[in-house]
Every structure is written in structure tokens, then in C-alpha cells.
Amino acid sequence: MLTENLNRFAVENGWYRNEKEGSVYGVHCGYPFTITDGRNFKAFITPVAGIDANTLAALHNYFAEHKKELKLINYSISDNFLVFRVKEPVFALPIESIQHILDTVTLFMEEQKVPVNACVVCGLPAEKRGLYYGLYACLHRHCVNLEPVDFTPIRNDDQADSEKDDPAAAAAAEISAADSALIAENIKYHSMEEYMPAMTEALTELCSIPSVKGEPTAEAPYGAETLRALQAFLALGESLGLKAVNLDGRAGYVEAGSGERLIAALCHLDVVPAGEGWTANPFEPQVLADRVVARGAIDDKGPAVAALYALKALLDEGKELAARVRIIVGLDEENGSTCMEHYVKTSELPTAGFTPDADFPVIYAEKGIAWYRLSASRKADTANEDANDTYYKAANDSADQTANQAVDQTANQAAAVRLVAAKAGNVANMVPDTCTLTLLDAAGQTITEQYHGRSAHGSRPEAGENAIAKAFAALAPRLEATGTGDAFVTAFNKLIAATTDGSLAGLAGQDESGKLTLNAGVLALDETKAELDIDIRYPVTWQLIDVEQRLRDAAAAVGLEVGLIREQAPLYSPRDLPLVRTLMQVYSAITGDTEAQPLAIGGGTYARSMPNIVAFGPGFPAEPDNAHQPDESISLAAFEKAARIYREAFRALVF
User: What is the pTM of this model?
Assistant: First the structure.
């Protein structure tokens, strides 16, 4: 039966009440506690799994030295729990005294860094709490039936008294060899290390396929290499015992489990073009001591392999899945995600899931995306014609000039050039790393110049150096100095130049999802026309119609036409959405990062393709982002940790 003062304490502090057991339980300063009544005492019980030998010794010393102050009858630290029993006078222990005891003890525990979220069975981080043999503790679901690691070898009060003045004896309170082996087994159970050789081999096989979008065929709508990547992934899934389905060469999936609910991970196997600046062939994967380097390693073949083996590891535990789990792979993510449009039309939508194609911890918002083509006819380029007329007139009409003027004119003729062609970039969502200019000099000779920048993802153009901007910044003063200015070059430098925030076009601004970004991605210019494809990522609360109107006005002012290539509306999922909360808990449990918050990004993912999907990894806060860049890579540590997180995410969503 629950006593009155414990009942009042529970009500005032928001704790749970267990009438049957006569106890209350809840959290104090982050630590789970259970308090129960005994004959003339109250017992305070809290888990201390995950502590090391020194912390265990410090706890023993503390309670031995503060017996009188805390009015203890006795205490014990065993079976991963600390239990201390406080004398209770004739009248019930006042609520203020209970509060004071909890404050005092938890303060010391914080100072000693006793883990607040260690699973009472294995000692590793666990976000969820529950009753373990009637005592409140952090606990992994899958640990309930496992043999616990004993972090607290039994030692009585007399031993504590004899050791408190003997540091050597205190340090000797170590976990037994048998328990050390058990810890190793639990860590192995939690890690994905045993799967890493197979995961690495699978990743290198997939990354050796240059699955850039190519010429369509009946069997391969996005090109032969994308189909080859799909076939390799499906074959890998089948070799692991999974059902594999090819959806008309546009997408596919592997699946395990049964039931009405369908949990999914959405990945893509297509990649952006390699570009320049690699230290080795981007499609001959380099397995280094700490990472795998290849195009697609992080975006998105590595995460696809991590999700696949996460499912494999979950199945290997031998427990029947409570829902189906499907790893869906598409082949057109980098060029519009029509692959997912095909999936939605032809296949079952998941109940919930995630796409491992962004960053951890969880993405709750994705900016809107719009690709535009800025164009101008160069046949009717009056500014260019006027400049050319001036150039040729200066070259041929010098009869009335003085000798000095003739010398200056001859020098200008020799230096004068005219832009006849320019080419840069492959896709709008990638910062171009090379821009090639073709120029014609006064003698009619062709000059080819190449400018180099640094590639980056189009959603983060500030991380790169745009080769188009670099080339036109260098070319413009040369053209102007010799009277051969180019209208398109001038328009580019007025409207975009080296900026990445759209400020020159009057587009700059931001909301909680971040700033608008603008990337000049693809340039194609000859003597008849000029076209520039740009990628704009706009804040989630903005309307595309407003962004587009401002762009059109700014472009018209410099003589350019604007055409929409494609667009994707912003995505916003409430931060308290159950799916977001669950994935946040999984991330925190594995990484120990309890301060992380959901993120908003400029990238566009498959999460926009179907409901109740959010982006979830694989990028960790401390890992450099090198997607779409030369020497793209995934670290082996991040590869393993991401697979661990995805396994636990499947577990949390399935069971």
C-alpha cells in the first residue's frame, strides 16, 4: 500500500505511483529513481550500470563517509543498482527531506559522472526507461532477456570502511574477467563491426559502377549503368535472403518480414558526374585505413549498404519482425526523382520510414528547390554587335590618327579578344569546377582558356568555388578594356557573379530553415545563344511565385529570359511528429548526444516523394561533407555507426 507522504511526493513531482508495490518512481536531475517504504525506513533505489571501477569505489566511499549525515540504516551497490535506506522517525519522512536527500545524492552522482541514461543490462546509452523487475531504469527493449553485465561486484559496508583510506584497494574493485567478456559480447551485440568486411566489399562493388544518368533504353530509362547498379543491389539483397523486386528499371526494393505495416528506407543508387580534381579514378574505389573514397560513397550508395546490412543484422537476431521492412532504391534522385514518382504509381506506400541521404540527427524541414534556365540570343545581341563594330572600325580606320594613337590602337588590336563559346558544369545542383572559354583574337586565331574552381553540392554552393564566376570575372575587364564587351558576361556579373545568396538578383533572405542559396550550375554558350542553368533553394515559408517574379524582374533588367526547368515544393514536418521524436531518440541512444535538435536543410531528398518519411543521416556533425565533391568518401567509423543507428531505427519502428 502506498503511504500518504509518498503519494503526495509523487503528485507534486510528477512521478508515477505503483499502488500494488507501494512505491513511486520517476526522474530526478536526469537519474531514474524508485522510492519505497520499509519498516521505519525509506529505500531509495537508482541504477548505476555503466560505471567504471573508480566511480564504483567513489560511491562506496561516499555512502560510508556520509552515513550519519544522510541518516542511513545501510546501503548496498549490487546488481547494477544503488540502494540506500534512510531512517524514518515516528512520523513519516517529510517531503522536503526526501527532496533534500535526492538533491544531495544526485549532485554527487553528477560530479562523479555516473551515466544518466545507461541501460541497466548492458550499460550502453538507452533513451527509453521502464520497470526492470519493478525498479525504474533506462533499458533497451532487446536487453530485457539478456544476461546483465555486472558493473557492481558485491561489497558490504565493512569492506567499504576498510577501503576508504586505501586507494589501491578501491582501485582493485574491478569487474571480473567473466563480466569483462560479457561486456565485450554486449558491445559486439550492439556494434556492426562483424558486418563491416561484407559492407565494405558491397560498397566498393556498387561504387565501381559509374551510375551517372545516361542515354535511355527500353530496359534502362536512366541509362545502362544505373540499371547495372540496381541489378547489383537487388542481387546483393537476394544473397542475404531478402525478396528483391525490379520496378521497370526505374527503382526497386528488397524486403523482409510480414504483416500489414510497411517500414521503409529510401535510398538512391544514381550519382552525379565525377568532375575533376580527384586523386584517383572516382569509379575505382580506394579502401584506405579510415575511409572508402569513391563517387557515391556518401551520396548515396554507402547509406544504402548501411541500411541493407542494418536490416540483415536485425534479422540475424532471430526474432520475427512485427512488420515488413523494405529498402527502396531509386535511380533518378540527382535529376528530379522521377524514379520515386514511378514507385508511388506502381507500389505500396510505406507506413513510415526514413531516407538516409542528408544529415543526423533528423531533418524536419527541407527548402524548396527550383531550377531555372537563364538565356539570351547572341545572334541579336546588339551590345555584342556594337562592341564588334567598334573593334573592327578601330582595326581598319586609322588614316586620320596621329602616330601615337596608331601605336595605342595597334596594341589594343593585338590584345582584343571576342568570346565565341563557353562551357561549364554537368548538372544544376553541382558547383562547376571547370569552365572552358573559346576566344577569337584580332587575327582570327582561336584561343582556348580553362578556369578551375572547386566542386560542391548545389544546396551548399558557398562550400565550393564556381568556375563560371571565376572565368567571367577574369574575362570581363579584358573585353571591356579593348571595346569588345560581351552582353551575356556583363549580365552574369551583374546578376550572380561570385555570390551564392541571390543578393545581386534581389533574392536574399532567410527563415528558420536557413538562407536562400543560388548556384550557377551549367553554362552552354556559342555564337547564336547562351544558356545558364541555376539551382535555387528557397526558405520553407516562402512562396515560389514570389521568388520567381523577383528573378524574372532582375533578369529582364540585364536582358535575360527565364524559364522554369523543374521545381519541388518545400517539406516541413513538425518537430514533435512521432516519427521525428522516435528517430531522435534512436540517434541520441547510440551517440550519447542528448543535446542535438532536428535540423532544416537546403538539400532535397526522397522525403518529399511520399508521406511520413523524413531524412535521417548519414552525415554526422563532426564529419566533413564531401558529397558531389572530388574525393567523395565515407569514413569507416561513420559507416559502422550509421548502420548501427539504422538497425535501431528499424527496431524502434517495427516492434
Answer: 0.65
